[in-house]
Structures are given as structure tokens and as C-alpha cells.
Amino acid sequence: LKEENASLRSKINKLQILSETQADKIRKLEKKLEENKIKEEKEAQDLEAMVQHVEQNLRLMTKRAVKAENNATKLKQENALLQVQLKNYKTENEALRAGQSASLAVVKRNADVALQNLLTVITNSRSSIKQLVSGAESLQLVANLLKSIDRISEMSEDGQ
Fold it and tell me: What phi and psi values does residue 100 have, to the nearest 5 degrees?
């Protein structure tokens, strides 16, 4: 009976040690689980902040693109007006060559002014077109970034 009692005490001690070891493991796993939850929440918040930042940049770039398009339209209108003026100056120049009474110097000056105006419009048009292309490239970059964010979200959901 003493031997059986000693054997049972030994088993109880071993089971208590095993129970304490398992309890420690459970506490460690619970702590690790809590840390992972906190980490995931922070990552979700960071991702949401990044999405909001990207959306804000997208709105800003859209405004810039619209402004560039409006500017390009305005410059095209100015260009058309200057083309009409240039045509008028050329007609006047031809009339002077045919013997009209206007001074050749005035016509030359008018043609030079028209030419300068035309060159200015062309230069401004090129700049606006470059801005429009740059805005489109920026929008493409944002679209690619949003696709990447979707992939990260999908990978995050798959990993859970």
C-alpha cells in the first residue's frame, strides 16, 4: 500500500509539473495571440491611413488634370483667334503688295506681333499638354498603387 501510495504521489507530482508546463505554454500563446491582434489592428489602421492618403492624392491629381484640360482648351481658343488674326494680317499684307495705300512697315509690325502671339500660344500649349500628360501618368501610378493595396488586402485575408 505504501509503494502504491508513493507511486501515486509520484504520478501526481509529474502531472502537476506537466499541468504547470502546459499552463505556462497557454499563457505564452495567449500573450502571443494578443500581441498578434494588436499588430494586425495597427497594420489595418496604417493601411486605412495609406488608402485615405492615396484617395486624397487622387482627388488632387484629378483637380490638376481638369485644370490642365481647361487651360489647354483656353489655349486652343487663343490659338484659333491668333490664326484668324494672322490670316487677316497676311491678307492685308497681300493687299499692300498689290498697291494698297497702307505702309509696309505697319504691316510688317502687325505680322511680327501676330507671329510673337502665335509663338507664345504654341509655347503655352506645349506646357499645358506636358502637364496633362504628367497628370495622366500620376493617375496611372495611383491606380497601380490602389491595385497593389487590393493585393495586399487579399493576401492579408488569405493569411488569416
Answer: -65, 165
Q: What does the pLDDT look like over 28-62, one tens digit per residue?
A: 999 999 999 999 999 999 999 999 999 999 999 99
Q: Cα–Cα distance between 94 and 144 in angstroms, integer?
A: 57
Q: Which residues contact 126 (CB under 8 A, 6 or more apart)?
A: none
Interatomic CA distance for residues 6 and 12, integer angstroms: 10
CB 43 within 8 A of CB 100: no
Nine-digit cell at 160?
A: 488569416
C-alpha 160 chain-centroid distance: 29
The residue length of the chain stands at 160
Give the predicted TM-score (pTM) of the model: 0.41
71, three cell numbers:
487651360
Which residue carries 500660344 as its cell? 121
CA dist., res. 77 & res. 82, Å (int): 9
Task: Give the side-chain half-sphere CA count within 13 A for 28.
Answer: 6
- Are 96 and 102 in contact by the 8 Å Cβ rule? The answer is yes
Read off the DSSP letter of residue 141.
Answer: H
Task: Check if the beta carbon of residue 135 is closer than 8 Å to that of residue 61.
Answer: yes
